[in-house]
Design brief:
two-stranded antiparallel ribbon, 208 residues, binds protoporphyrin IX containing FE, 2 domains, Globin-like
Length: 208
């Protein structure tokens, strides 16, 4: 069962796997706070360009239903406002884990999520570097804050997807995660071996 306690645990487990320097942190939150007004003002352009990009590519376009764009624009606008006006804390990241799963149900794959998460950082990078009132050093701080934000939500979303698959296998055929991990490792090792890679004693691969 998915509830917010469970989702916060998923988020925490993903964040714990990230070296602390790579995580979104409270300084990043403070940097973003200094620019809330400008970031909110860029929202409509971000939303428009986000969906022009997603609708403009065959694989991502295929996810959407006829006439869905206005609803999607509303969800991303709400996401943007929440991100900029509410604390980015564990509850926020738990919510992101849930949002990630909502995408899984619609067949949105991890590469699509990773790409659009980067898209947000790229957009901010472009906008902030053109902003005359923000000096270069501060612009870099804003970009780095969004880079860590994007990495953190991406880590949570992809981890959530992985966990959902593991849970599904357990629910359907009762396969434990440890067994799945062992079988995955063995199978990958076997196929890499067949592809001409041999395991060295140091357990790294060298081409055979
Ligand atoms: C970092 C990237 C993304 C963010 C932050 C984001 C954010 C959101 C949010 C907040 C919602 C509303 C969830 C809810 O109902 O509570 C949503 C829904 C949705 N998003 Fe995204 N999204 C992202 C990427 C994508 C991509 C790449 C696609 C498709 C290729 C996509 C397609 C959808 C669809 C189809 C829904 C509706 C889900 C449903 O209720 O059936 N999103 N998104």
């Amino acid at each position: 069962m998915y509830d917010m306690t469970k989702m916060n645990q998923v988020a925490k487990a993903a964040i714990n796997q990230m070296p602390p320097e790579s995580r979104f942190n409270q300084e990043d939150a403070a940097v973003i706070d200094r620019h809330t007004e400008a970031l909110l003002a860029w929202g409509p352009e971000l939303v428009e360009r986000f969906y022009d990009t997603a609708f403009g590519h065959e694989a991502t376009n295929a996810v959407f239903r006829e006439g869905e764009r206005p609803m999607r624009e509303k969800s991303l606008t709400d996401f943007w406002v929440k991100t900029l006006t509410k604390p980015i804390d564990l509850d926020y990241f738990g919510w992101m884990a849930m949002v990630g799963l909502i995408h899984v149900v619609r067949g949105v794959e991890n590469p699509m999520m990773l790409a659009m998460s980067s898209f947000i950082t790229d957009f901010i990078s472009e906008k902030v570097s053109q902003e005359p009132t923000v000096d270069a050093e501060e612009a870099l701080r804003v970009v780095n804050a969004f880079r860590r934000f994007s990495s953190t939500i991406s880590a949570i979303i992809t981890y959530g997807y992985d966990s959902a698959r593991v849970n599904a296998l357990f629910d359907i055929i009762g396969m434990e995660e440890s067994l799945l991990q062992r079988l995955t490792k063995q199978t990958v090792e076997k196929h890499l071996g067949e592809a001409g890679y041999i395991m060295t004693e140091k357990r790294s691969f060298i081409p055979g």
